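Give me the 3D structure for TIGR02117 family protein.
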Amino acid sequence: MRKFLRYLATMLAALVLAAALGTLVPRPLWPAAAKGEGTRHILVLKNPIHTDIAIPVDDGVRRRFAFLADAALPIDAQEARYIVFGWGGRAFYLETPTWSELKAAPVLKALTLDASVMHVDVAGAIKEPHPDVAGFDIDEAHFAALLDYIAASFQQGTGGPVAIEDAGYSTYDRFYEANGHFNALVGCNTWTAAGLRVAGLRTGWWNPLPMSLRWSMGLYD
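Predicted structure for TIGR02117 family protein (221 residues):
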């Protein structure tokens, strides 16, 4: 038992050190040599365990993600201001619409290995400044690259992205099959961080938690 406790303490210390270094060491190490004018404003939304990327809606974005309208998502609605994208574990996402419905099996899958899904939500105006909202201005080239990154996260079927039947929390969101597998080390927040790096921003080297990502971007962006 004593050996086990020492092993457990060593593992926890290693994880804490990795999380600290993942926050403090920037990725990429050096900022880009030059950037264009930041004409596109994107948002990162966070809750205690998860982050999403909110993309402002315009005609070009609607055309790029036209398949969302085919699933009856109201991206053409006058009040639609953002399309919010998130990547995460299938079991946890689909089986935990609220914290009161938390179950052991989805948590276990999230901590080990699970299939992944994309969650898409249509939102109206999002308040800034707000503790759970971070805004960033990026140029057109990086904005296009970010859209490519998001689109590539959707698993493609014969007719395009594969919507998961009857999966959603409301009339304003849908779930889709996604590429990649989810686990505790490579999860929703590392997906968000990778997208932000594609968008020309700097994150920490490894950001498994929303607060880690927020802190690192506060240091470098």
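The helical segments are 2-24, 59-64, 67-70, 90-95, 104-111, 140-152, 188-198, 210-220. Let me know if you want a second pass.
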